[in-house]
Amino acid sequence: MDRNPSPPLPSRDDEEEEEGAGGDCIGNTVYSKHWLFGVLSGLIQIVTPENTKSSSEEEEQQMELDEEMENEICRVWDMSMDEDVALFLQEFNAPDIFMGVLAKSRCPRLREICVGILGNMACFQEICVSISSDKNLGQVLLHCLYDSDPPTLLETSRLLLTCLSQTEVASVWVERIREYPAIYDSICFIMSSSTNVDLLVKIGEVVDKLFDLDEKLMLEWVRNGAVQPLDQPQEDSEEQPVVRIVPCVLEAAKQVRSENPEGLDVYMHILQLLTTVDDGIQAIVQCPDTGKDTWNLLFDLVCHEFCQSDDPPIILQEQKTVLASVYSVLSAIFASQAEQEYLKIEDLPLIDSLIRVLQNMEHCQKKPENSVDLNTEETKKSDLTQDDFHLKILKDISCEFLSNIFQVLTKETVAQGVKEGQLNKQKCSCAFQNLLPFYSPVIEDFLKILHEVDKTLADDLEETFPSLKVQT
Length: 472
Hints:
By secondary structure, this protein is mainly alpha-helical. Helices cover 73% and strands 0% of the residues.
């Protein structure tokens, strides 16, 4: 789970003062309880200003944070990564203090730090359960998703992801989020408008986790953005604009594409999760523009960015999960919108991309000639097994997609593929080797077309795969 970047550490003089406090160290740390009490007391005073101050003075104070106070609170932020400190903060009811800050303060930096401290504390299971069980604190934290300050939104997203990753409390947060429909609008707004890549990645991870945990919530969010009926008056549509999940996901994916490959992987997995339900597929393809935008982005990724001809075959190990997601979504669009012209003209580049992935997969699955020592092999056994599992998923998805494309190939397209090299003997052999025997009828039909286009090539392939020769 993520923890926040470390703010400035206490200076050596500060540490010596804390050690000299005598007997008030927090657990096994060198941090002073007395010092921490002072910082928390200062926080309380920030959100409870003296009554003699005017409203304008109060507002100005809340918008700014004293440099010395900021440094001290940042030290607490850093300290809260230590379990002893986190537990002490919990015992001192610090979450209630932070809740007061979040509810009353309009200082963006202060709000960011307080959510960040809570996020660090939530990394420890006991504290995470306690924070999650506090309904009032939960409401305040979810309200932070409406904040306009990107750093505060980032820390809120990190905290939510940490809690959603704890099986004991994940359902609590899912239900809580379901109770606040406006969170959907806020998250969609962030995905569609933010240029902060770190924030987009983290909010994407939250959405991905939510969809993975609860299909019902995913369906609710898909239906929230359902396309309005065609008979609805246009003026009503303009007064109440529809916020749909798929265009927002696409916009975020485009934003993180070049700067954060892991973030792109997250957004591709969100799209893949959407295609696991009929409503999700319809959310992608029902609006022609959305379907085309999704197809074009994903097509560009697999044909011009991932697993290219000049990449080493081992690159597939790095790209296997994102490729599986992308091919899965493309396959779902292809299957549901096969009559769309923008799909048909892209058949050959996709065939080339899919076969190249299958070729690289064969290379990745080869055992190294030089054996490694037993201890190293044992330590990496689980990782190798996980790699094999993901490669198998990618292979299954790629083969199914490739077979679907082969089924709709026309004589003209096959002739063009042979002429341009996408359907030469080497590539066809790779395709046949991976598609047989599960997709034998598809290969047989393809060979019949190939006999009309290039009989020599068809005969060569039948010699290589004798089981096909008898049936053609």
